[in-house]
Amino acid sequence: MPEESYPVNPTVKVLRGITIYRSQRWLKAVLATEIFGRRSIDIYLWQQSPESQTGQEVWKRMHKVSIRSSTEWAAIKRAVEQLLPMLAQGP
Fold first, then answer.
1. Which of 76, 79, 89 is nearest to 42 (CA)?
2. What does the DSSP assignment read for 47-90?
3. 69-89 pLDDT, tens per residue?
4. Could you tell me if 34 and 19 are in contact, meaning their C-beta atoms sit under 8 angstroms apart?
5. Contact partners, residue 35, CB within 8 Å, separation at least 6
6. What is the pLDDT of residues 22-51, one digit of tens each?
């Protein structure tokens, strides 16, 4: 199975990617990337929409979260795990 390509800036080298969600209009993926010799894990969300000048459908980055160390990831993971129980609760 060929590696999926992702609509990142040409300066970003994608080492590996895992698609979380893909529809006709949305794409969410976690990528291991390298840019200017620095590696990070990036969570991207793109939306496909018409380009203003040509009207052609293009992927536009809506969000990006970068994780640059295991310490940073541990802090993010702890925070998310603390908030996860709120998903099961009603309003």
1. 76
2. EEEE-TTT--EEEEEEEEEEE-SHHHHHHHHHHHHHHTHHHHS-
3. 999 999 999 999 999 999 997
4. no
5. 11, 12, 13
6. 999 999 999 999 999 999 999 999 999 988
Angle at CA of residue 7, ends 12 and 4, nearest 5°: 95
- The separation between CA 18 and the C-alpha centre of its own chain, rounded to angstroms, equals 9
Residue 2 scores a pLDDT above 60: no
CATH number for region 13-88: 3.10.450
Tell me the whole-structure pTM to 2 decimals.
Answer: 0.85
> Which residue, chain included where needed, has tokens 């800036």?
9
- Give me the residue spans of the domains in the chain: 13-88
